[in-house]
Amino acid sequence: MSSEISLLVVDDEPNIRSGLRKGLERLVDRLDTAGDADEAMERFLQHDYPIVIADVRLPGDCDGLHLVTRILEQRPSTTAIMITAHGTVETAVEAMRLGAFDFITKPVDLNLIRQQVQKAIEHHQLCEENRQLKDRLANAGEISGIIGNCAVMQDVFREIRQVAETDATVWIQGESGTGKELIARALHDLSDRRTGPFVAVNVGALPESLLESELFGHEKGAFTGATRQKPGCFERARGGTLFLDEITEIPPKSQVDLLRVLESGQFSRVGGEEVLTSDARIVSATNKDVKTLVSDGSFREDLFYRLNIIPLSVPALRQRRDDLPLLVEHFLNYFCERHRREGKRFTSEAMGLLGAASWPGNVRQLRNVVERLVVTSRGELIDVEDLPSDLMPMDGRPIEAVKRLADAVEEAERKTIQSALHEANFHREQTARLLGVSLRTLHYKMSRYGLH
């Protein structure tokens, strides 16, 4: 879709077309007119008009309502505003049912229609931004559901693709909530082992008495409660990938057993004598500083070197803030559908505060916050007042202080744009060049700050 805002006015009265042209042409980059539905449809198919103003009564076989129906069939994203000298409740309801954005009666109040066109411009720009964001989401989330478009995440994606095609043992380091298991799954999904099993075990969540049985399995009668034979993770992961999460929580005795299996590929079930083998690829992960653990003797150095063949670091959310809008959009879409909520979105002020938060729980925390807001917010817009009270910026300032700063920045931006407009004699392309922004960005900012 073109970045310029174009408007098509359809009315059989030349005076109306001329008046609307004079009253609206400064709001848009291009304004064309047509006297009937056939001429309008011909123009519409030749050029992209995101906004169409059409009279309900037009000469010929096709009236304004049918014209709008045809236009929306061709391009559903078009914003249509209907005008008529014969306004009735039934006509207005029918127009809105067909997809019209608004319905205005003649004689046309120029100030009112300017306001409606301005709203239509904002609506179009928001839809266009959402479309671009979804395109970026589609491009960014191409690896096993991992969302990321910033430079540091693109580096992670390159490492994943490069390492996945090998059988090398991988050590994933990252804070809690950064998506380490997603990385492990991506390594599996992109490997030749993708048709084999992916077995994940959280080592830190298992008591020491059960860990050996969980990893290596047990025979029937091996201990109280062992009523049947059970294969362990190494056995179940044959031909696939074994993901050992929170690996640094493994107790000392189990570290010795694990090292022996990693070196020989052989093990026995608890209570059994049969020697079994496993060719599972090992991917492990931790959120701890393993070098400190090695130094104080709580984690074996030889085991660390055996697991740390290919180190892969996952950035914290505060290190990839450019991805926050992508993640928010992804979670919004997911939870709106899951909880059967109408499409919701954050105001720019709320997004600014999300971007300033510290996010100690990283992407997992952001995911939980978005889900909570989808469920608890009442309107379509999620604003500052809806955000959790404990959501704090990185430097510890309260949310209200950051909001005041955001307001001050916006006011400075508004004055800068206003000054550039005057300097360029309100020529939009020259203004955009002076500011070093795209014409589309200028339109959006002018609309946001009410600069006409």
Keywords:
single chain, alpha/beta, Rossmann fold, Helicase, Ruva Protein, domain 3, 3 domains, 5-stranded parallel sheet
Describe this structure in words.
- The chain is α/β, with parallel strands linked by helices.
- The protein folds into three domains: 6-137, Response regulator (Rossmann fold); 151-315, Rossmann fold (3-Layer(aba) Sandwich), CATH 3.40.50; 320-449, Helicase, Ruva Protein, domain 3 (Orthogonal Bundle).
- 48% of the residues lie in helices and 13% in strands.
- It contains 18 helices and 16 strands.
- It has helices spanning 14-24, 37-46, 64-74, 89-98, 110-140, 151-164, 180-189, 208-216, 233-236, 252-264, 290-295, 301-307, 324-338, 348-356, 362-376, 399-423, 428-435, 439-449; strands at residues 6-10, 30-34, 51-55, 79-84, 102-105, 170-173, 198-202, 217-218, 230-231, 241-245, 266-267, 276-277, 281-286, 310-313, 345-346, 381-382.
- The strands form five sheets. Strands 2-1-3-4-5 form a five-stranded parallel sheet, sandwiched between helices. The protein has a five-stranded parallel sheet with strand order 7-10-13-6-14.
Low-confidence stretches: none
End-to-end C-alpha gap = 23 Å
Tell me what the CATH architecture of the largest domain is: 3-Layer(aba) Sandwich
* Cα-based radius of gyration, to the nearest Å: 30 Å
CATH class of the largest domain: Alpha Beta
According to CATH, the homologous superfamily of the largest domain is P-loop containing nucleotide triphosphate hydrolases
How many helices? Answer: 18
- Reading side by side through the largest sheet, how are the strands ordered? 2-1-3-4-5
Shape: elongated
How many domains? The number is 3
Strand content: 5-15%
Class per helix and strand makeup: alpha/beta
Helical fraction equals 40-55%
